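task queued by scheduler; priority normal; single chain, no ligands, no partner chains; default sampling; output format set to structure tokens
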Amino acid sequence: MRTAVRNAKSGTFHRQPPVLGTRMRTAWQAGQAHAGRGEWAAAVQHFEAASRQAPHDTAVALNLARALLALRRCDEAAQAAAQAYNLNPRDTVACAFTAHCLMEGKRFRDAARCLQSLPADIERNFDYHSTLGRALQLGGQHRDAVGAYMNALACRLTDANTHYQLGLCLNELVMKEEAAQCFETALAMGVGRHELGVRGLLAYFAREACQWAGAEQGLAALERALHALPDDTAVATAPFAHVTLLDDPAEQIKAARMLARHLAGHARPLAPRVSDWRPEGGRRLRVGYLSADFHEHATCILMAEMLEQHDRSRFEVTLYSHGKNDASAMRRRIEQACEHFVDLRDTSDGDIAARIRADGCDLLIDLKGYTRGHRVGVFAWRPAPVTATFLGFPGSTGADYIDYLIGDPVVTPLDHAPFYSERLAQMPVCYQPNDRQRALPPAPSRAEAGLPEDALVLAGFNQPYKISAQVFDVWCVLLDALPQAVLWLLEWNAQSRENLEREARARGIDPARIVWAPRKRPADHLARMQLADLFLDTWPCNAHTTASDALWAGVPVVTWTGRTFASRVAASLNHAVGLGELACADIEHYARTVVDLAHDPERRARLRATLAAARDTSPLFDSLRFTRDFEALLLRMMQRHVDGLAPAPLPAAH
């Protein structure tokens, strides 16, 4: 089944149709000739002519489908291939190619249904099961995909890619240990081009479970594999693992560039378009935001009010959504915050790019970077004259087809430019938007939160993958130096809790001094966060939205400023609320600051008072000011474009 698809990708289907006459023969032969030369538009015309002469011939329909697919007319290709399949429901080639066309058009669930429609008495081979598994997986039906991949392995146990894909599905089902075993098997068998991505996931899984020995081994193997590849390699990588687990900016940009090149290999850039927008008037600037996270998600929690504050007299805003609709209050709020909301789920990168181009978007902003469900590949199609990436990913995309990365003087100082493929565009204060409308309910009692009444509460509410052995070493030293303190952590998963309690014992700390906070709704989490005395940040990946939450709740955040975007976010937030003194220069300074604050309740009270006032006075929480500054930065990007100038660094304008 897969062989038929591979053969079709490289040429045409070679089954000869019955010769019905001169016109039919001429159209067929001309279509074949044009297809052989890669002249797909002409091939479509001739195969369509042949199809009109022989509407019931499967070979003609399949070759028309192949030519349409080459032009990225995926829905039409799927329709033509389905015509061939409907003519003969036992034709495995027609079934496979119909599914392939549907998958190319991101219609994964339709592709799975097509494959499942094959008559039950027809033998299913490895290609069938693995293709079905991939369709189910990409359609979000991970449990069913596991079954399909298990059937594929029953046919071919040694297929490394199937073990890899099975691991991805198990990860989605929160079966982390089983997923890691699949990845280890895939690596042992030789997973080829997936190696960097697999090693990144393995290291991430180990850190997520706080299995630090495994994480360190995984990171070392990941770094070796990265260093072994030439800088100009185009391959799938796991940039999120690099930016969250490692602190080498050169490694981060190398991994990002590799993935960006890999994604570009699947794109066919649209013809360049120069925007006809002019600052002196005529029409509003058309700004598009592309994301899968327009629902109850950290991105929207931060930027909801910013979207609402956009000046509609000057900006026409469209949200392009390729993610789920969770029917939440946040989703409804976001849909109402913009002028146009376009749902593009199950749409191919090329079709998303075509829609954005058809809408006449002047400036397209990516809100995902290399986070879960990203569509950075859309930008490789060059859908808009000016492009930028913002907020979702604390690092460079490595994509030379994205013009700007929006940061600020702290997270992206201009002398860090060599570690970004984009030009750095700096907000004047902090790159992170905030929402003054977010809830801050009254705090529960300490007893209700499971906290001792008289303890110094040190909150470390980051996800466990951010807690490294080095971070925990420092935290345990602090607990030893501060016998009146407890460490308040999120109970993200049972495995990380068990491992952290064991690691605490190994460091001479009674696990009873760790208080576990169950996961709660955002409003309830903000309410209880007010009970903390200090927030202890992590490195090399800081708290981001979580740090903003802590500051909003009036809890001072102690952090230290590293070398990468991800390790400088909390410092930027602290500077924005006037508490730059809590952004420490090194780990020793960090630990000393925590101890000093622990012994100085009056200073802690002053810091909390500063933060309480900051809700109304700080630029960090002034959404209108942020939006106007953000709009001014977008206008600077567009001004360069209309002046015929290439993108260039845009320093903060004060």
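post-processing summary
- The first helix runs from residue 2 to 10.
- The chain has a mean pLDDT of 94.
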